[in-house]
Amino acid sequence: MHLLQEKTFEMYRLLSSRSGLIKDITIDDKTYEVRITDRNGHEIRKSSMAAGEKEVFAVSLLWGLAQTSELKLPIIIDTPLSRLDSTHRDNIVNNYFPNAGEQVVILSTDTEIDTSYYRALKPRLSGAACLEFDQRQELTTFRQGYFWENNHG
Questions:
Q1: Which residue range(s) make up the domain with 113?
Q2: Is-contact 10 19, C-beta < 8 A?
Q3: pLDDT for the residue numbered 99
Q4: Per residue in 56-73, pLDDT tens?
Q5: The pLDDT value given to residue 120
Q6: Which CATH number does the domain housing residue 76 bear?
Q7: Domain-located, residue 113
């Protein structure tokens, strides 16, 4: 449990813009209850955290679980940046995505992973694809390449 706490807190410090306010993350080894304490030793209730901070914490916990597990499971992340500000987005793209696991699938919108984020991630990608919905036919098709990569029209 100690290693899980350590790895979760390690990633939280990398990702969160407010990490200096957090002193510790502890996980009860019997109940698995997670406690976050501030620099003064007061508990920070997760319900009082902003949506973006909750997202960063959840990503950090997933990182901790992946790092302490002996299983090499694929990771699927759905719209991971939608509720985050630009600082948290930068931190997740640069620190979490490249290290999340051996096989990572990111389901994003074109506004989440924009051209600069895509350029940063491209050397680590094995592929990209786009789902396109045709309203006339009421049909979704699969196309190789990210949103703007293959000119279609």
A1: 2-144
A2: no
A3: 85
A4: 998 999 889 888 888 888
A5: 93
A6: 3.40.50.300
A7: yes
